[in-house]
Inverse folding.
């Protein structure tokens, strides 16, 4: 009974977290972790002048983010709920 009313907020919050975590770069660099995130991989490819690899990785990142957002939006029809 409560979950259908809160679904738009849950979906929008999930979209924010998903999109921000996909492009996370500064936190990984500041913490000094050796974890390879998407942002650090793109920076390494760009620094090594692998521009075609960096561009294709960025396009894949955008497509994955768009698919993730579309899948999350399928769980709640925001136009009807708002």
């Amino acid at each position: 009974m409560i979950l259908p009313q809160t679904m738009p907020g849950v979906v929008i919050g999930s979209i924010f977290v998903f999109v921000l975590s996909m492009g996370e770069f500064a936190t990984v660099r500041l913490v000094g972790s050796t974890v390879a995130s998407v942002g650090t991989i793109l920076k390494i490819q760009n620094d090594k002048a692998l521009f075609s690899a960096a561009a294709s990785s960025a396009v894949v990142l955008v497509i994955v983010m768009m698919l993730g957002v579309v899948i999350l939006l399928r769980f709640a029809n925001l136009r009807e709920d708002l």
User: Anything to note?
Assistant: The radius of gyration is 17 Å.
